[in-house]
Amino acid sequence: MTFYYSLSTEQIYTPEQMLTLFGINTDSVSLEILNNLGFYLVQQTANLANDFLYSTILTYDVSGSYAYEVWTPVPRSLPIAKDNGKTLANESGTNQLNILYLSTNTSVEILGAVASQLLADRPLVYQEVIDSSVAITTATALKIDAIDAATTVDEINNIVNPPTGILFTGRGAGEAPLDLNPSYYTLFNSVSLTEAETELYAPGTSTVIPYGSYPGGFDSIGNCFALGNYTLQIRETATSRIIAEFECPLAPTNEDVVFPTYT
To answer: How many CA atoms lie within 13 A of 227 on its CB side?
Structure first.
């Protein structure tokens, strides 16, 4: 839906309201004339704040002929955020388990029956699902423990709503397949974490690549991968919590990697 923002009233109006209240037909009046009258076409933006953790204040930033939505998150009280954060973490874990069971044609009942068998007697296919289930529940428990220990709502948000975005990355520039190319974010979405508060980590060689090692991004400045192990993680610097994990592509000129890819 189209809206127009008024500098004088600091309110937004639909085209119908513009005609009824101000006698302005937006279909026949140019944007330049509307600007001269103090009205600006609203450019809507996404509200990235989670309602369970933040309330938001909506304001408008006038630039040129447009009024851009600006969402300012206001943290909810820490006890409420902790309760809500744990609910979100449990819901995420449950969703992951449901996806696992659907993709493997198993169920809680089947796995319960298999778990009652001696380990040596369990069918391998079911044991793999049990192992994956345990990994999901363990990760969920760790999230809940971290939420309990959090001292700010932003910390909770970092746990239950990790950043999303695109890392422009690769390896193999200059015929060096073990060397991370200069890499940087082309998109980074988070209300509680900045790009500069992240790092890259190559588990194969235990190499930490800090933000700023390349202007506005990352550079290993030499080999950081072990031969055959090209796993790369995006991590929160303060906690080493994994935001994304993927195989760094052999791409001398880099390619986009969308994240998160790790839960």
So the answer is: 0
